[in-house]
Amino acid sequence: NSKTLYFELAECVGIKDLSKEELNPYRASTYGLGIAIKNAIIKHKPLKVIVGIGGSASNDGGSGMLEAMGVMFVDKNGNVIHDMANDKLNDIYGVTTDSFNKFIKGIEFEVLTDVSNPLLGETGATYVFSPQKGANDTDLPILESNMAKFSEVCKKHFENDFAQVPGTGAAGGVGFAFVAFMNA
User: Fold this and answer.
1) Nearest-angstrom CA–CA distance, 150 and 137
2) Alpha carbon of 41 to those of 7, 35, 91: distances in Å?
3) Left, alpha or beta for 72 (phi > 0: left; psi -120 to 50: alpha)?
4) What's the pLDDT tens digit per position in 5-63?
5) Angle at the Cα of 41 (from 59 to 16), degrees rounded to 5?
C-alpha cells in the first residue's frame, strides 16, 4: 500500500553464504542485488526503495548492481564492459546513465547502514572491509586503486565528488553507488 520496496543486500549478495575458499574481492559482484531491485521495480512500480546495506561479499563500488539496472560502463575504446566487479573498475573510462535514469525516474532511494566509512582511504571500503572478504595486504593497494579509478570517472561524469561522503564505503562501496547514481 505504501508503494515502498524493501531489500536487504546481505540476502542477495552477502558474505554469510560463502565459504572462505569462495571469497574473492576482485570478482565478487553486487549484480544479484541489482537484478532483484530491477525486477521488483518492474513488477511493483514503487515510489520508494529502501535498502539495508552491509555484509556484502563484494568490493565493487556497487558497479555490478548498477550494471544490472542499466548503467553502461565503457572502456577507453568505447566498448561496453560486462560482468562488473572490482577487477574491471580500472578499465572504466566513461559511464552512460540515460536508460538507467529513465528507469529510476520518480523513485526515491533510501539506504540504511550502520557504518559511516567513506569510499576511499584508510577508513574506506577497501582497507577496512576487504580483508574479511578475502583480501590480503598485497591486494589492498590494487583493490583501492581500482576503486579510486571508478570514483574518478564518476566524479567527472556527475561533476561531483562523492568518495568522502559518510557511508559511501558501506558494503564494499554500494553506498557510493546509491549516493552518486540514485541520489540516496
Assistant:
1) 21
2) 12, 10, 29
3) beta
4) 999 999 999 999 899 999 999 999 999 999 999 999 999 999 999 999 999 999 999 99
5) 35
